[in-house]
Amino acid sequence: MRSRGRFLFTVAIVAIVAFAGTFLDRSVGVRERGGVPSPTTTSGAWLCPHGGGKDWAVTLEIANPSQAVATVRVSPLGPERPTAEPKSYEVAPGATLAVPARAKDRAASSYVEYFGSWVAAGWVAHASGDESGVAAEPCVEGAAGRWFAPDGTSAEGEDAYLIVMNPFDAPAILDVVLYTKGRAPVRIGDWTGLALAPHRSTALLLSDQVVNEEALSAEVDVSRGRIAVASLGVSAATGGVRSAVAIAGGPPQRTFLPVAAASERSSLEVLVPGTDPVSVDATVFSEDVPQPADGLTDQRQGAQSSEITQVLAAGTSSFDVVATGGAAVARRVAGHVNDTGSTGGVLGPARAWVVLPTVACEPNVPGLVLVNPGDGTAEVTLHALPQAGVSAPPDVTVSVPPARALPAPQAFLSADPSAAVLVTATSGTVIASGASSSCGREGILGFAVAAGVPAPS
Amino acid sequence: MARTSSNSDVAGRRATVLVVLVVRDAAPWLRDCLHALAQQTHKPLAVLAVDNGSTDGSRELLEKALGPKRVLALGEDAGVAGSVRAALELTAAREADYLLITHDDAALDDDAIARLVEAANLHGVERIGVVGPKVVDWDNPRILREVGRSTDRFGHPTTPLQDGELDQGQFDRVLEVLFVSSVAMLVSRACVDRVGAPDERFASHHEDLDFCWRARLAGFRVLMTPLARVRHVGATARGLRDAGHRERSERYYGDRAALAAMLTNYRLTSLLVLLPLYAVLGFARVLWLTLTRRFDEVVELFAAWGWNLVHLPGTLRRRVGAQRTRAAPDRAIRRFMDSSTFRPPRWFEAAGQILAEQREFDDEEAEAPVARRLRQQSVSLARAHPVLVASFLGAVLGGFAFRDLLGPAALAGGAIPAFPAHPDGFFAELLSGFRTTAFGGTTAASPALGAMGGLATLLFSSGALAQKVMLAGGFALGAIFCYRGLARRTGSPFAAVVAASSYALSAVVLWAYSEGRIGVLAAAAALPVVVDRLEWAYGRDAPADRRRFVVGLGLVVAVGVAFEPGLVPALVALVVIHAVGSLYRVRGTALVLGGLAVAAALVYPSLAGYVADGGRALSSQVGAADLTRLARFVPVPAASGLVAHAPGSGSFAWFLPAAAALGFALARPEHRASANRAMATAIAGIFLAWGSAAGYLPAALSNAPVYTVLAAASAASLVAFGVAAILGVRSEAFGFRQVGAGLLSVALGAGMIVQTVVAVLGGWAIGGPEAIPPAWAVAAAGEVGNYRVLWLGNDDGSRFPAPGGDPTGEIEAGPSSLRYGVTGPDGITALDIGRGPTGAGDDDLRRVLDEIVSGGTHHGGALLAPLGIRLIVAEEGDLPPEVADLFASQLDLNLRQASGLTIYLNAKVLPLAAELPEARDQAVVDASSLDAIERLPDVSSDPLSAAPGGWIGGGAGGRVFVSTEYTNAWRLSGRDVSAPPTRAFGWAVAFTAPSGPVRVVFSEQWLRTAEMSVLGVLWAAALWITRKPAQR
């Protein structure tokens, strides 16, 4: 081959290589990946910062809505290093297990690990002795780095606690900031860079730090480690206890706060932790058409503040609070007598919920509210997850019209008040939550509200 | 004519000279020799021939020329010393004023003896005992052969002459030297009387050294006079006659005489100093000869020492005699010795010659401008001495570029593996029946560990030094081997030097160095040799010694594969291309297959590891699926985060592919077949690298870095062909070739200069401890005991932050994939060089990672606990977000804050070996399903200590768990108990332990010992077959 031919041959090769390279780079690319391995196990944990007291009885309610046996391992936590070994229990498929928790200390918490299948867990606290009342909440499924607890007050006779638990093997370092209506955010020296040792929980008495504030909210920022937070209110003035798990992550734009069988007056506490004011708009869902919430229609709330608005909504209702810019909200409401319940609500509807028992003792008036924030009617099946040895009532189906909040049939609930209820929407999506009265002569002495737990598909 | 007194007179009369002519089978030259003696101007002169059993008619010729009475027939070869000793028995010899000892292949100039006698009687110089002439070549008398000789302090003969040095009068003065050759040696009567005869044990091998040394010891001077000239055939040395009793190499005779001369002639105090030094240097010589495969010479050296040992009594007797005649101190004799054992390498000696050439150039171009003269001088120098210039520049620039790496600390960073604290670590791992790294198992260590251990041992047991030597050596060897192969194939050292330099400056080689990738550097050194061998095997001229060729090829492949198993797929590609693109494919393929079979034998304990798990050991998880980078031989993606930029990977890295394309176009017709194969290989290498990185090739064929090295080596070949072609292009008419030559020159010039600047500026990923991300200190803080580290990263084709090394596995994780690797607490280790990550432990890790990524479990720490993984490390932001969320949600993995790294501490981790005394914990060990393992409680354990061959410890009894792959060869021995293992967690080892101390041992160590013994024999045989023969 002569020189010229060789050069042309070379040019041709280079061109072919360049063309092929361009084609491969641009048109073929890297081999597609996309498979995700199928899980062969199921495990997780619930963090239950329930708190406690001298004569308190706290029961962990663990419901297994699946078809497989679940094993749970319960580890008690307190301000000291735990000495007791974790205890394991089996939860039968489609059943609820009540496990008494250690709760003699205000800071008491429980760590519930589950294996084999998914379970929902929550607690029902029954205060007696010098204190009285009932509180219930679902446990927290995941730890987070930032928490908001808008349910607090330091009005006279009210003790507001934060129960902070660290069930992990690493210490947690956290900062607590308190918000009120009129003051600048309050940072307490001892609670800035507060270290919480591994496998410990602690109770922080907020109302000792900022007194006489109707609205007292807290933000907990974790700079190291992982924790779970709940508020615990103990009222000496009216008698009663209440608790609400704190809201994890950033302040949400929209929150649903359902309550059943409650008194007419609710306190809606709104915490705006951000540096910008937000606009808050609340709608009340009930068995009737939705109504704007009194005093909370397009209301502007200042930055870094916590304010309370009284909203009237008797019986079964749900607040749909929209906060442009994000706000943490909680609803505090009294039952038929003085005991109050509170909830931080849920962030949105789902197809299936597990509503854990909220009754502490007999007699009782169990309640369950179903909310349909959607545009179409939701068909909902209620399936009881009874405790061992108790026969489950037959499933019932409820139609929930759009933009309505309905109570579950009382007969179904009363058949086994200690059973969790699996709420499944066969069409549409709903929100389910529990709110019950229990104890006392008529079963209305204590009142507790607990949001439902979205069940995995 | 009246006689007048002259320097040839003794006691007022002409000095009598007896020529002792030592003869053996010298018929071709003997007539000239005798004729020259007959023509001597010095009289009176007598000739006595001593025949050493000639069989070619020499004796008859002597008797005819000299008469039977002047021929002393010994009947056997007594050598020069024996002949002289025999001659001295005769009365004539005892009466002569001088003896002239001369060889039968030497012809003296007519006045040579007269000049020698004159020199022996120089006015004002006393006690001249020995005088030698200037010895020149028989055929070309302009070439000097002898002008007097010297030795180093240890008696090794040296000469001031270079090979082929021309006689330009540079030695034309009477020189006092240590000794002169017995080719022609005039010895005075007094000297003979005082010193005696030469040592007959040396026969004809350096007997002159010992004799002259003894003469000096006795106070006599030894001179060389250039006025006397002798032509010398050097018949025996040149193989022109049968060597007779000369059956060993020159090294043997030299070292034999040197040590004997030392023992005989040095004073005791001198010996006390010199003998230890001699021993040290001797050891070093043995090592050097061994490392350079000069095994014959090692044998010769030992034989020389053995001879001296056997003949020690005789030597001591002669020592007594020599010391009795001593009239001069050692220091007086040392004046005539070389100052040390170090003799400048030849290329240093050549420097003088080069300077002379440059001076000549200066003289010729004296009128030209300075800049032009400088340029022309540089070009002329580079073309005349390309290797010298490249070596010099390489040494200077390399030294500067690597300046930051020259400290005493071990190198860290990049992908460089940690070396064991002591070289024993290499040997222990090589011989160990079980693997002490990764998840254990019985995969054999790479034979490379033997070489690394040996090197570290030689380098004062310094792992840090061995690291640096291996890196710098790998870098340099790549260039040297590239040069050697291409010089042979192109016949142009200049072209080969340019190509080798371009190879060394290619992006992939600079990257491999920057990253401290010993395996890739080994591949970069081996591939040019393999390419050269393949070109030879598939070329027109078959190797003459096929056995040696096949074994040599196998040896090179084995060395390369031992360091970088990923060389195998590159070799396959190379062989296929040569088999397809050659006319001699049957012969070539047969030779290559033979070589590969030899290579397989030389790494046979590792073969099972190479093929396990689909050949994962051959694969590399790093690589850029980016053809614009691969085409310029950059094998990895651009820098990101903690993974540094690869020096020399910028736009100027295009110089090599551009130059290769031009070289392909310019290649001469005789090189075109090779060029075609090189071009095919380069293109194939690039696309195979892309296929590897893009995930289209099976694991066994996926190794982007090695394919890129292959492509770069082939490109360097093309450069060599191009440069070789353009060297004569100026003499042709202007055309395409001139344009191509210009472009090639510009591409190479600019590219190599910029790449050199980049290299000199440094910026290597490796360095001191600062090359490890500061966050790693946080990761490792407070962690004691032995554990494993799981490294995670995305699938962008880059490595982990140091010291994590490369990913070794990959799992699907939604839209992307997750790559992982496991190391010990110190990061990647050199003990795993050439060994893949396969095994049941790795399978279990994959199973666990799949489970975590699936979202099913939130107890990933428990699942990782039996694997001994205490830390999980990823570069901050490197994990796919969905994977990061999943790891963050694991309940038993706790985030440890460290800027730059995401580090999780596994709260559930188990010790690598422990006794579990609690009954509750013991049952957990038997679990094999993930569902059961994730329920792992907080286990109470008593860690066992690692010990040679296993672990020891315990005491309370219960279950013993060892986080190493299960094999039934493990045994637990305790008090009167030897327990077999059971399977723990589905893959590891457990035992039921009695109370009291226990020991976990590997019971099949003998198998590995036998395996490695056989391997040692195979390597020894291969090295022996391919040894460099000694010069006889």
Structure description:
The complex is a heterodimer of chains A (457) and B (1032). Chain A is built from 2 helices and 37 strands. Chain A has 457 residues and is mainly beta. Chain B is 47% helix and 14% strand. The longest helix of chain B is centred in the middle third of the chain and has 28 residues, at 463-490. The two termini of chain B are 52 Å apart. At the A-B interface, helix 1 and strand 1 of A face helix 27, helix 28, helix 30, strand 18 and helix 32 of B.
Describe, in short, the structure shown.
Chain A has helices at 3-28, 410-415, and strands at 43-48, 57-64, 70-77, 87-91, 95-101, 109-115, 120-127, 133-138, 146-149, 158-166, 172-179, 186-187, 194-196, 200-205, 217-224, 228-235, 240-245, 247-248, 254-262, 265-272, 278-285, 291-292, 299-301, 305-312, 315-324, 328-334, 340-343, 352-355, 364-365, 368-372, 378-385, 396-400, 404-407, 420-427, 431-438, 446-451, 453-454. Chain A is mostly beta strands. Residues 1-5 of chain B have low confidence and may be disordered.
Show the helix and strand layout.
The complex is a heterodimer of chains A (457) and B (1032).
Chain A: H1 3-28, E1 43-48, E2 57-64, E3 70-77, E4 87-91, E5 95-101, E6 109-115, E7 120-127, E8 133-138, E9 146-149, E10 158-166, E11 172-179, E12 186-187, E13 194-196, E14 200-205, E15 217-224, E16 228-235, E17 240-245, E18 247-248, E19 254-262, E20 265-272, E21 278-285, E22 291-292, E23 299-301, E24 305-312, E25 315-324, E26 328-334, E27 340-343, E28 352-355, E29 364-365, E30 368-372, E31 378-385, E32 396-400, E33 404-407, H2 410-415, E34 420-427, E35 431-438, E36 446-451, E37 453-454
Chain B: E1 9-10, E2 13-14, E3 17-23, H1 27-38, E4 45-51, H2 58-66, E5 71-73, H3 79-87, H4 91-95, E6 98-103, E7 106-108, H5 112-120, E8 128-137, E9 144-146, E10 150-151, E11 157-158, E12 175-176, E13 184-188, H6 189-195, H7 207-217, E14 221-232, H8 250-265, H9 268-291, H10 295-310, H11 312-324, H12 330-334, H13 346-364, H14 370-384, H15 386-401, E15 412-413, H16 424-431, H17 448-458, H18 463-490, H19 493-504, H20 507-515, H21 518-537, H22 546-563, H23 567-580, H24 585-602, H25 604-615, H26 627-630, H27 655-666, H28 672-694, H29 704-726, H30 736-761, E16 766-767, H31 775-780, E17 788-793, E18 809-813, E19 816-823, H32 840-854, H33 860-864, E20 869-875, H34 881-888, E21 893-896, E22 901-906, E23 913-916, H35 919-925, H36 930-933, E24 942-943, E25 945-947, E26 950-953, E27 958-962, E28 970-974, E29 977-979, E30 982-984, E31 988-993, E32 998-1002, H37 1005-1025
